[in-house]
Every structure is written in C-alpha cells, then in structure tokens.
Write a structure and sequence with these properties.
The chain is of the alpha+beta class and about 900 residues long. The protein has six domains: about 200 residues, tricorn interacting facor f3 domain (Immunoglobulin-like, Sandwich); about 100 residues, Neutral Protease, domain 2 (Orthogonal Bundle); about 140 residues, Neutral Protease Domain 2 (Neutral Protease, domain 2, Orthogonal Bundle); about 110 residues, Sandwich (Immunoglobulin-like); about 70 residues; about 90 residues, no CATH class. The protein is built from 28 helices and 30 strands.
C-alpha cells in the first residue's frame, strides 16, 4: 500500500517538473540517443592585450546508443559556430546533414541527418566557433588586476573558466550535462609571454611565431563538461611535491608570499582523503588558482579556483576565523576531487552526493588539522545547523533530492540561500548516518562506493547499496528498515521533524513521537529518526550515542532513558527539533548551568523555533533568555541573538505594538550590554588559539548595539568593514559591474555588515533604487533577499519600491520568481500595511498558482498570529522584567 505522504512526494515531484523543468512543453534535458566519448578542444585568445574575442574548434567523438537521425548537444547563441566536418569515425566518410537548428530556450544545437545513424556507430563532429569572453566570472571569462594594486596603473588581463553548473555550453558546443562524461584533449593558442594551465599535465609547448605559442595537455580522465578548466595568464607558479603529487599554487606575480599554510593543508587533505576513500588521487598534479573577487572555490579537476585570500594567508598574523575558513574551503575543494569528480552525480537532482560529502569531509578534516580551534569548529558547525534548520522551515524549502532542469534553477541550488539545503543539510544528514552506523562501518561503505563507481556518475541508490553491503551482519539496524528507506526519508522530503518527548509516569520511561515542523511544508511526512540523548549526571554525560530509532511507520514509541535530566539531541547529531513536556522544560531551566554549553545553545535555538511555530509559549523561553545575563560561554549567546531568533522577535513586536516593541527593544539592549561586559573581559584575559569566540561575539554585540541605536553605527577595522566597501555596496557602478552572478556580492557581503552599511533609511533607499535601476538580472530579488536575511529591517520600503517599479522588476524577473520572493517576504509582513502591499503585488502578477497565493495569506496570518500570542505573553511578564536585574 502506498502511504499518503508518498503520494504527496510523487505529486510534489510532478509540480517541480512542471514549474522548473519544462519550457513551452519541452523538456530541457538532452535526448539520450547519442553520448560523447571524447573531445579535442582548441581555444585561441589574445587576452594579454585585453581583447575579449576568442575562437576555437572542437571535435567530439560521439557514440550512437539508439538508432536516430539527429544529434542534439548544447550550444549558445552568444557565439558564432559552423560545422566543418560530420563524418564516420573510421572511414571519415561524410554524413549528409538535412538541416541544423539552434534553440535559444534550451541552448541546444540540433543536427538532423539525411540517413539514420545506427546503434553502436561512432561519428566525428567538428565545429568551429568564435565568441566573446564573458566579464562576470562565469563561463570563459576575462578579468584583470593592477600590478601594484594601483588602479592608475595599466591593467594586466587574464582568462579563466568557471563552467559549473551550465556554463561550458556558453564557451564551446558540448554535451553539458553532469552524467555525460568524456575525456578531453585540450590545446590553447595564446601570447608567448603567457602561461597556460588546464586539468592535465603539460604535454607540449611549441612557438608558432614571434608572438604566439601552442600549448597542449595530457588527456583528462572521463569527466563532465563543467569540470573542464583553462587558465591563460602571467601568474606566478609555485610547486611542491606531496607523496608523488605535484601541488601548485598560481597567484598574481608578487603574491608568492604566505603560501605555506595552503600548501600544508592541501598536502594533508590529499593524504587524509586517499586514506579515507581507499583510493589514490587520480591525477599526477593538483594546481590551485587564486584570483580576486571569486566567491569561495570551484573544484575543477586538477585546477581548483579560489578567491586568493584563502591561498595567500599569513598563519601567524591571521585570526582564528581566517585560518579556519581557509582550511575549511581548501579541504572542501580537495574533497571534491574524490566526491564529485572521481565519483559524480548523474543529474543535478542529486547534487548533494557531491556537495554534501565535500562539506562533510570539510568539517571532519578541519577539526583534525586545526585541533587548537576545536571551539571554533564547534561554533561554526552549530551556527550552520541553526541557520540551515531555519532555512529548512521556510515556505519554499525543498528536498535534498530536488529535480530541476532550467539553467537558472540549477544555479539557484548553488548560488543562493537555497544552497544551505544542498551543502549544509546534506552534510548533517551524512554525519548523522555516520554516527548511527559507526564510523568504521560507514567508511567501509564509502570505500566500496568509490571503488565500484570511480570515473562514473551515480544515483543515491548506488551509495545505499554500498553502505548496505558494508553493514552485513550489523546488529543495530532498526526492524523493518533499510539504508535506502532511512536515507530516503531525509533526502526525498522537504523540511524536518519535531520530536516530542513526554514523561508519562514516575519511572524513567518516556514517550517519543514526531510530526513535521510546519506541517504545511510536508503534510504527512514521517522520518526514520535516530534518538541521541545524554544527562549531566551520567558518567558519559558529555557524550551522546544513538539510543534507539523513532520509526517512520509508528505513531509513537516508549523507551527507557537513564539520568536525572535526559536531553535529546543536545549535540545536534540529528537534524531535528526537540520539544519536551511542560515539566521537562521546567527541569531544564532549573538545571540550566548543569547542562553543557553546546546543549544550552541548542535548547535556545529550538525554543525560539518552537515559539515561532506556537509549539511553546514565550513564557517558557523568557527564563532561558534571562539566564544569559550570567552566561560566559559564547555559544548560547550566538544562538539566542541570531537574526532568525531574538532579532525576528524584536522586529515582530515592534511591528505589531509600539509600546510592547519598545519594551522588547529595551530587553534586547540590556542583553547587548551584558554581552559587551562579559566578553570584553574574556577577550582581555584570553591568549592564543584557545581564546573563546570573543571576536565573533563582540561583532555580534556591535551589530546589536548598532541596530538598537545604542551606538552610532560606524566602521570597525577589526571586522574588515571599511568605508570603501560600504560605498561599493551602495554604488550604482558596483551593482552594474557585478554581472548576473551573486558570488561577488556575497563575497563583499561577508566583508561588511549590511546593518552597518545600510543602517539608515536614506542610505538603504539609495541602495534599493540602485539595485532596481542598475542590477538588471534575474537574481535581482535574490540579492534583496540576502539583505533581508541579514537583518536589515526595511521590509515596507522594499515592498513599496518594488510596487512603484513593478514594470521594471517584471521586465527583469519572471513572475514565478517574484511570486517566490513574495511568499518568503510574507513571513516578515507583520504590519497590516505590509500585508496589504504583499497582497496587492500578488494580485498584480495576474494568473498564477492559487495554492501559492493561499500560502501567502496563510503565512502572513500565521506570522501575525504568532506575534500577537507572544505579545500577550510578553505583557504578562513585563512587570517581572521591569523588576528584575535586567
């Protein structure tokens, strides 16, 4: 029998296919009648002179899988192309073409032949093309630097590729899908003074004349087109040998200093990953490129691309945050050489098989390589979990396995706040399963998975089969469950569960049950949930082990738990919220300082979330917040004062009642004052790597002081917040130059505080108008959503401005994207005027999804209802608040 929630998931998949995967009734996927086996790719450029034009030729060896009379591959209208040869691979006999068509919607080139191509036949297709280098750091792009950092100097130009997810097709005709692997022979013609690097080793370099040379590379392993990489530059090269692998660093001339940390982490990551995976790295070299303005890294096989700040790092001068994030990013991209490159995913639906495992290994290896920063790793992991749980509870969350077809929807998985599901949630589900199955058994399964599927593309069932084989005779699997069933309950369903813990007798027996957080997201969904618990009075009270499973096919279970105060999932090994019976919360509050700091932080984050869902009264949360005034550990503070917790509550109260909002802000001011008092003292007493997270907590206190008007919002050089970067953020020129790629904006956003740069209404209004007038990209509203999530409070201003320039927005952003933005904004629309603006904008979209319009109404009324319920409770305790030490 098919359960109701299974039908829901099936219907949801069809909705996703309809909304995201079809244009004018046509699938955007390539037909599978033909596949590529090999590419001979030649690129020619004069990038050294700043010339953006380039030309090239590609010869594709194609295998015919099914009898057909057409070849369909990807190509883009942005470059000119012509077929110069189409023939049989053995005899070179020409194959006559009936007609050729380029479809701009699907970015596909269709070649219809006059004869049928027979199954198992191999053919050669040669296409010459010429185009223009992009300037948005995607595809085959041009960029520049100033030799002495002085913009009055002559710029030095270089060209690089960034093909993930679907930009290879914008550079040359190819089969641009992740499951279609082929080998590549790459050659480049460029200026003799420039160097060229690609995925493979240098094979040959020949001077063609006084100004040009030809550079050829060793054939690549079978790989998808998005991993093809080329760099044409005058960058300096530093190389070191790590157990037979040539590790290179490519940076701007003069930036060869401070590479020791990057070399060390890369070499150690290679060794650790080879040992963990039971497989040698598949290439003789691994080069890493550092450029300015890139967002994070890109895992090109053998030629990884980074923002240069992560490679050029002075270990002695860098703070804990800079060290940790550089280590985390390098280990992430090196992990991709195994997870994603060596073993890939068949389609973007299962991108989590790549990004989830790379993030999982990043967290594991960063802890191992920087043990002195264990406190920072704990904080980083916890904050990522809180942020991801919050994102996974929003109206437009989606499953880890999420079907998309359009290029912009695929990029949405990688570039926006939606990436938290693919990266962070996936890594936490993988870690949860490792912890449940035991590390050595899990590793054994991963080794088998990689050995069986190297140089291939997989689906999740391949992973499950490998893990199941490793678990033969494993006694601790729950009854009636399989690895596939457990994993699928987390990967194929949106959202996450709340686990209810109830004491129903005077014994140590407890009843456990579950329901989806926000049932509207996944009505009827159920999960296989591992229950972890500990108690402060047990010998192993700081450790959590999986005690039992809460099955997906049971309404509830009754289990015995030891200890005076059993706390469930206190260390966040499971991806779920926990709610206790009222007496349980009272016991927690009474024993607050007996509980580990990480668990106190988790309890606060869960409590805020449960208040938002009206699962817990604010009168239960308030005493926990009052405990912060004597809290010397940064973790509970970071949880309570996060944007999605106390700040959302302050905004909601201020929106619904000015008097109560003023009291709530006063309460927040007292907490902020205590933060400064506690952690300024801690910072002066701490030394070296073992210091608490004083830098981060003081940044948080500074943001709160700014947003509450306690101090004049200014620039703190210690936080890398410079007035120059603030000016860039709000300038029309900067927004025009971003290109339709959010990476650079997100990179700048990490270096500044939105709340400081955009604190006053006038500055924010200028920024908003510059976005609407100068960022003419489909990602326009996503850029604004980044600002909303950062805590900038001007919801009404955003909605009103979009309404005033609605035609402009519609011209740039399709209606479906506007609708999605308004659904997300509905959670912030507390004031009646804001709700009216959202409703009017939805009506102006014209015909659309009735269910989505209803979702907006439900979300707005829900947000207002929750705010009103908290308001009533806050009024009840306001006198206690006024009389307290706060």
């Amino acid at each position: 029998m098919i359960r109701v929630h299974v039908w829901f998931r099936v219907c949801l998949c069809f909705v996703f296919v309809f909304l995201f995967g079809v244009v004018n009734g046509k699938s955007l996927r390539l037909p599978n009648a033909t596949v590529p086996l090999h590419y001979d790719l030649r690129l020619q450029t004069n990038v050294h002179s700043g010339d953006r034009s380039y030309s090239g030729r590609v010869t594709i060896t194609i295998y015919v899988r099914e009898r057909t009379n057409q070849i369909v591959l990807h190509a883009d209208a942005s470059y000119d192309s012509k077929i110069v040869r189409f023939c049989e691979s053995q005899s070179f006999a020409t194959i006559a073409i009936d007609h050729v068509g380029l479809e701009s919607d699907s970015q596909s080139l269709k070649i219809v032949t006059k004869r049928q191509l027979e199954r198992s036949e191999r053919i050669l297709l040669t296409i010459e093309f010429s185009g223009t280098l992009r300037n948005d750091r995607t595809g085959f792009f041009i960029d520049h630097y100033y030799p002495n950092g002085d913009e009055f100097d002559d710029a030095v130009f270089y060209a690089m590729t960034e093909f993930q997810p679907c930009y290879a097709r914008t550079a040359f005709p190819c089969y641009d899908e992740p499951g279609l692997r082929a080998t590549f022979d790459v050659e480049v013609v460029c200026d003799v003074r420039y160097n060229v690097h690609s995925n493979g080793e240098l094979l040959q370099e020949a001077v063609l004349d006084d100004t040009r040379k030809l550079v050829r590379f060793v054939r690549s392993p079978p790989m998808p087109s998005y991993l093809v990489a080329v760099l044409i530059s005058d960058f300096a090269e530093n190389v070191a040998d790590f157990n037979g692998v040539r590790v290179g660093m490519l940076t701007k001339p003069g930036n060869q200093r401070d590479l020791a940390f990057a070399f060390d982490i890369t070499g150690r990551a290679l060794d650790a990953l080879q040992e963990y995976c039971g497989q040698n790295y598949s290439l003789p070299k691994l080069y890493q490129v550092g450029i300015d303005g890139h967002m994070g890294g890109m895992e090109n096989w053998g030629l990884i691309l980074y923002n240069e700040q992560y490679l050029v790092l002075n270990f002695e001068k860098a703070g804990p945050a800079a060290r940790f994030h550089a280590c985390a990013l390098i280990t992430h991209e090196v992990a991709h050489q195994f997870f994603g490159n060596l073993v890939g995913f068949r389609w973007w639906t299962h991108l989590w098989l790549s990004e989830g495992f790379a993030t999982f290994m990043e967290e594991k290896l960063s802890r191992k390589f920087l043990p002195q920063l264990g406190w920072y790793a704990d904080m980083h992991y916890a904050m990522g979990t809180w942020k991801t749980l919050n994102r996974d509870s929003q109206p437009l969350t989606y499953p880890m396995s999420h079907y998309v077809e359009q290029s912009e929807e695929i990029e949405y998985l990688l570039q926006t706040c939606a990436s938290l599901i693919v990266y962070q949630k996936s890594a936490r589900i993988i870690r949860m399963m490792e912890y449940c199955l035991e590390e050595d058994i899990f590793q054994r399964g991963i080794r088998r998975f990689i050995a069986d599927h190297q140089f291939d593309s997989v689906v999740p069932e391949d992973l499950y089969n490998s893990l199941s084989t490793a678990m033969i005779n494993y006694p601790d699997m729950p009854d009636n469950a399989t690895i596939a069933a457990i994993f699928d309950s987390w990967t194929n369903q949106a959202g996450h569960p709340i686990v209810y813990v109830e004491s129903f007798s005077n014994t140590s027996e407890y009843r456990f049950s579950q329901k989806p957080y926000k049932s509207a997201l996944c009505n009827g969904c159920r999960w296989w949930i591992p229950i972890f618990y500990s108690s402060y009075d047990l010998d192993d009270g700081l450790d959590e082990m999986p005690a039992f499973w809460l099955p997906a096919d049971r309404t509830s279970v009754v289990e015995w738990m030891d200890g005076t105060l059993p706390l469930v999932n206190g260390r966040s090994f499971g991806f779920y919220r926990v709610n206790y019976w009222p007496g349980g919360w009272k016991r927690i509050i009474a024993n607050w300082h007996h509980i580990a700091a990480t668990t106190r932080a988790k309890l606060l984050d869960d409590a805020f979330s449960l208040v938002r869902e009206q699962e817990l009264p604010f009168t239960t949360l308030f005493p926990m917040l009052a405990k912060l005034t004597n809290e010397s550990d940064s973790m509970p503070w970071m949880a309570a004062m996060a944007n999605h917790n106390l700040w959302n509550l302050v905004r909601a109260m201020s929106a619904i009642d000015a008097v109560v909002g003023k009291s709530m802000r006063s309460f927040a001011k007292h907490l902020t004052t205590r933060m400064f008092e506690i952690f300024k003292t801690n910072q002066s007493d701490a030394t070296g790597d073992q210091q608490p997270a004083s830098e981060e907590i003081l940044q948080l206190a500074n943001r709160w002081a700014c947003r509450l008007g306690m101090v004049r919002c200014g620039i703190d050089s210690k936080q890398m917040q410079t007035s120059r970067n603030c000016r860039r953020l709000v300038s029309a020129g900067y927004l025009r130059g971003l290109g339709c790629h959010l990476g650079s904006f997100r990179g700048l956003s990490e270096a500044v505080s939105h709340e400081i740069c955009l604190n006053d209404r006038v500055t924010f209004g200028q920024f908003l108008q510059n976005v609407l007038n100068n960022y003419q990209c489909p990602q326009m509203l996503e850029l604004l959503w980044n600002v909303v999530e950062a805590g900038v409070p001007y919801v009404s201003v955003i909605l009103q401005s979009i309404g005033e320039q609605f035609w402009t927005v519609q011209h740039v952003v399709e209606n479906r994207k506007i609708e999605q933005f308004l659904i997300r904004m509905s959670s912030y629309a507390i004031r009646p005027a804001e709700q009216l603006l959202v409703t009017e904008l939805m009506e102006r979209l014209g015909e659309g999804s009735a269910s989505r319009r209803k979702l907006v109404v439900v979300e707005m009324s829900r947000a207002a209802r929750i705010a009103k319920s908290v308001l009533v409770e806050f009024e009840r305790i306001e006198k206690r608040f006024e009389q307290s030490d706060l």
